[in-house]
Amino acid sequence: MSTATADPAATASPRTPAPPARPQRSGREWIGRIALIIGMVAILVYCVLPFYWMIVSALRLPSMGRSTDFLPIPPSFENFVGVFAASNNFGRALLNSVIVATTTTLLTLLLGILASYALARLRFAFKGIVLAIIIATSMFPGITLLIPLLKMFTGSYAWFPFNWMNTYQALILPSLSFALPLCVWNLTAFFRQLPVELEQAAMVDGCTPGQAFAKVILPLAAPGVFTTAIITFIAVWNEYMIALTFGQDTAMNTATVSISKFTGVTGFDTPYGTIMAAGVIVTVPLLIAVLIFQRRIVAGLTAGGVK
């Protein structure tokens, strides 16, 4: 019997292929990457530095309001205590801002969702003109509407014999008129991206048109609705012109108007530290909300971009 000898080359384990060599970057590519990083850092500093300066100014002593140091030495919370002094009435102003912003946002979503869904699904003549008129109403400068609104809310017109000055409705309705067109325009484009077959399938399974909208379409439209709600709330929360005109009474001041009337801790000079502390109190909740819900906001802003 002859014994067969195995070929050592055949029994040898196959060699693993060497990893491909990394492509060498040219000098122009490195310059482009460095310029991109520098640009990102510059934009970040440009956006964050004012907020950082507001926090630092709020943590200084009230007597150091004009200081230019980049660190509060020594740090103090006296400005935050001065914000809630009885003379400033800032607690009531915060409550007014919450009521006005929340109510305006809810009314905007309620009316905007219904109107945008109808514009996206119904077929009727001059629908494009209707959409153009709706978006055109948001382009009027707000200052041009204050005089007719002021005359209307003071009962100067016979067809509107109500005095709404220093009331919540006088603060909510004008803000609603500015927020609603943008809401309708955004959500109309969003609802158009949702296929109508989803509603038809739901109605085949026994849903009414209202149930198909509430149980199928509305949950799918949640990113767009949530984004519109955040944008509307922030816009109304930061609104100043309407709140100053129609909420002249101290008890009806919103947070932005109340900050402009601060007398501060000393009561004589400009209370820079107290104003900065109030700015931190007003801004931080919005910043936290945006950071928490940033994924939904991005999803709503980019929805419909790719079919």
What would a concise description of this structure say?
Helix content is 65%, strand content 0%.
Instruction: Give the percentage of residues in beta strands.
Output: under 5%
Please give the largest β-sheet: none
Classification by helices and strands: mainly alpha
Question: Can you write the helix and strand succession as a string?
Answer: HHHHHHHHHHHHHH
Stated plainly, the CATH topology of one domain is called: MetI-like fold
Report the radius of gyration as a whole number of Å: 29 Å
Describe what this molecule looks like in 3D.
This protein has 307 residues and is an all-alpha fold. The chain has a domain at 89-261: MetI-like fold, CATH 1.10.3720.10. The chain is 65% helix and 0% strand. The protein is built from 14 helices and no strands. The chain has helices spanning 8-11, 27-58, 78-83, 90-121, 127-137, 142-153, 168-193, 197-204, 209-220, 222-237, 241-246, 255-260, 272-292, 294-302. Helix 4 (90-121) runs parallel beside helix 7, helix 5 (127-137) packs across helix 7 (168-193) and helix 8 packs across helix 9 (209-220). The chain is flat and about 70 Å long. The N and C termini lie far apart (73 Å). The relative contact order is 0.14. The model has no long low-confidence stretch (mean pLDDT 83).
List the helices and strands and how they pair.
Layout: H1 8-11, H2 27-58, H3 78-83, H4 90-121, H5 127-137, H6 142-153, H7 168-193, H8 197-204, H9 209-220, H10 222-237, H11 241-246, H12 255-260, H13 272-292, H14 294-302
Helix pairs in contact: 2-13, 4-7, 4-10, 5-7, 7-10, 8-9, 10-14
